[in-house]
Amino acid sequence: MLMLLAALAAGLFIAMAAAFLLARWTGNSGWVDTIWSYATGVAGVAAALIPVAGSETVLSRQLLVAGLVAAWSVRLGSHILARTLQGHDDPRYVQLRKEWGARADVLMFGFLQIQAACALLLAVAVMAAARNPAPGWLLTDTLGLVLVVA
After folding, report:
1. d(CA 134, CA 116)
2. pLDDT classification of 145: cutoffs 50, 70, 90
3. What is the CA radius of gyration of the chain?
4. Parent domain of 145
């Protein structure tokens, strides 16, 4: 499992490096959030579906969690993508670049790698939810569903 988590981490770090390059190339930092949304979703789905030791099949809870994460990612990513395609640079990132001055590229790249690390933490939380051995529907399941839908 450690190798799978390392692969997820590498994928997220590469995705955010690509987001940095795309944002620089296009001059539109909206790509950063678009790519983060989709990459976090892919990592979450993959983490949810990591096989549980001793089980020969994917558990129904794993499928449910993977489906909810996929729906969240597609919904958020598509919303941000539509905004990004309008060509407007995200004011938050414009402000950061202004404050960071000549070091903006270096600091932005580091900032995006921190976002990748946060996405990995989310993926690990998703994995824990998907592997919860408790039978039936729990209060935490309801809270998770509310977060996905909200």
Report:
1. 30
2. confident
3. 17
4. 2-149
Asked if residue 19 lies in contact with residue 32, where contact means CB atoms within 8 angstroms, the answer is yes
Distance CA 116, CA 108 (A): 12
* Residue 130 pLDDT exceeds 80: yes
Tens of pLDDT, residue by residue over 11-63, are: 999 999 999 999 999 999 999 999 999 999 999 999 999 988 777 777 888 99
Q: Pick the closest to residue 138 from 128, 129, 149 (CA basis).
A: 129
Q: For the chain, how many structural domains are there in total?
A: 1
Cβ count near 71 (within 10 Å): 13
Give the chain's count of helices (H) and strands (E).
6, 0
**How many Cα atoms sit within 13 Å of 73 on the Cβ side?**
22
Residue 135 DSSP SS3: coil
State the DSSP string of 66-131: HHHHHHHHHHHHHHHHHHHHTTPPPHHHHHHHHHHGGGHHHHHHHHHHHHHHHHHHHHHHHHHHHT
